[in-house]
Amino acid sequence: MQIPDAFSAPPRLLMGPGPSDVAPSVLKAMSQPLVGHLDPVFVKMMEEIKGMLRVVFQTKNEMTFPVSGTGSAGMEFCFVNLIEPGDDVIVGVNGVFGNRMVDVAERCGARVTKVESPWGRIIEAQQVREALQKVPRPKIVAVVHAETSTGALTPVEEISRLAHDAGALFVLDTVTSLGGCPVKLDDWQVDAVYSGTQKCLSCPPGLSPVSLSPRAIQVATTRKKKVQSWYLDVNLLASYWGQERVYHHTAPISMNYALHEALRLVLQEGLENRFRRHQENHLALKHGLRELGLGLASQEGHQLWQLNAVEVPAGADEAALRKRLLTEHHIEVGAGLGALKGKIIRVGLMGETSKPENVTRFLTALRAVAGL
Ligand SMILES: Cc1ncc(COP(=O)(O)O)c(C=O)c1O
């Protein structure tokens, strides 16, 4: 074959549902020479990553580390380690990622009861309460904190309390929330959580920060059956990410460099400042859209700051809008999915992307391509 030219990435403003823009220092960190995955300097960096993740997740959980793979790997990690065939699991479904949780839990052999809300709305604690009347002793109650497919942020404290009152573990998807709005594992008593690097942490995709509470570890380490995934078995991963440092699989070295730097930037900014920035830029976008006669499709009062489900202007072709934003303005936004396909475009203001000038640039481009 003829060898292709070296790949050259065009400049893009990543305003979709992820990946988000990445800071130059994160890209620089990734381009450093490799060291081995058991090299003492790498091991020291692993410990720093674990420590910084604990701050960002607001937890003291010892078992906090990045799983190799994207957010979906973190989702599988939580479910494969905690579910045994025949377990009852309650899952909140108000978009794509709740459905993915159902699929993953069923593949682990769980009997899943869905608690469903219309896309764009949150999962109400009352719905979980009603589900618990039908399934009083579930092993797990799981919800998606920030549903990226619809732009809704489900409040989880009450749901977590209900789960614990029923003797269940509470599992939370924070792929889109972590680093963009408060995520308080210990205050909210979350037992198992997973996230992704490519959203509000503004790091390339490839790692999934996870954390397990002592209760979740107890469940994972006292299973009757072996975890069906060798790669994601916490009993094995703990020997590498814990103090023993036994080889399990080769850690993605450069991805860990990137995450280390991305987390440093989060801590340098400060969590509260970072959340405020996300909120302010969301409100600026919402204000600008309102001036164009456009609204958000997600539930008022529960709208994500980092992902905006923008209604498509009347009569406009959604796919054509997105194409022109990309080709003429170099702005990537996301399509609506499932029930919202063709009705919304998903505009991310995540991590590095969440800047006033990007809000202005997007509104100007949208006005031009939609003729508003
Ligand atoms: C809420 C949520 N959960 C899970 C995932 C899956 O993550 P990944 O695509 O990184 O595997 C995503 C990805 O967009 C997400 O937004």
Distance separating the two termini = 48 Å
Number of β-strand runs: 14
Envelope shape: globular
- Going by helix content, strand content and strand pairing, the class is alpha/beta
What's the average pLDDT?
97
Strand content: 15-25%
* Ligand catalogue: pyridoxal-5'-phosphate
Q: For the CA atoms, what is the radius of gyration?
A: 21 Å
Unreliable stretches (pLDDT < 50, length at least 5) are none
Count of alpha/pi helices: 13
Sheet with most strands: 7 strands, mixed
Question: Helix amount, in percent?
Answer: 40-55%
* Cross-sheet strand order for the largest sheet: 2-10-9-8-5-3-4
The H/E string reads EHHEHEHEHEEEHEHEEHHHHEHEEEH
Task: Describe the overall structure.
The protein is α/β, with parallel strands linked by helices and 372 residues long. Helices cover 41% and strands 15% of the residues. It contains 13 helices and 14 strands. The protein has helices at residues 24-30, 40-57, 71-82, 96-107, 125-134, 157-165, 185-188, 214-221, 234-241, 253-269, 271-291, 318-329, 356-370, and strands at 13-14, 63-68, 88-93, 111-116, 140-144, 146-147, 152-153, 169-173, 192-194, 207-212, 307-311, 331-332, 334-335, 344-348. The chain has a seven-stranded mixed beta sheet, sandwiched between helices. α7 links the parallel β8 (169-173) and β9. α12 (318-329) packs across α13 (356-370). It is globular and about 60 Å long. The mean pLDDT is 97.
Brief write-up:
By secondary structure, the protein is of the alpha/beta class.
